[in-house]
């Protein structure tokens, strides 16, 4: 058996983490999945988490498209700097409050697939070599792909576990009363 390269590991971890995320959501009875929890955190339900991932996938796709067209993409988004990421994330949250959970699931599944396709377009060398593409500046494609897939999914898993646990507690409290 040959050792897997970083690209293969990224694809594997991204898919495994994405599936784990969906399993957490699916572990909650479907009629309860839209419950919002009482929290000071920005993301109060599964939809909020999924649409956050979806929008970051969309930004990554934009960066990639512009970068591969020899443009220098504005990151993270026009009008925002990395230092104002909390404001950007709040704008994202506000923009998706009317989206239904089933729409959010469909959107994030499609965007996940598109990002996996982008990863698959490249060799391990292209993904791992710093400065291989001018638009990644001193970094490599891996850092962009990994931050918006595997690592971001770990964050989402943690958020969704809290939401699922809170929903379960809310339902247990209702049954006790």
Give a description of the structure.
The chain has 177 residues and is mostly helical. The protein has a single domain (6-24, 41-170), classed as Up-down Bundle (Four Helix Bundle (Hemerythrin (Met), subunit A)). The chain contains seven helices and no strands. It has helices spanning 6-26, 46-68, 85-95, 101-120, 124-128, 141-147, 150-176. Helix 1 (6-26) runs antiparallel to helix 4 (101-120), helix 2 runs parallel beside helix 4 and helix 2 runs antiparallel to helix 7. The longest helix has 27 residues, at 150-176. The model has no long low-confidence stretch (mean pLDDT 95).
Shape estimate: globular
Number of β-strand runs: 0
Q: What's the average pLDDT?
A: 95
CATH topology heading: Four Helix Bundle (Hemerythrin (Met), subunit A)
* Binned strand content: under 5%
Distance, first to last CA = 57 Å
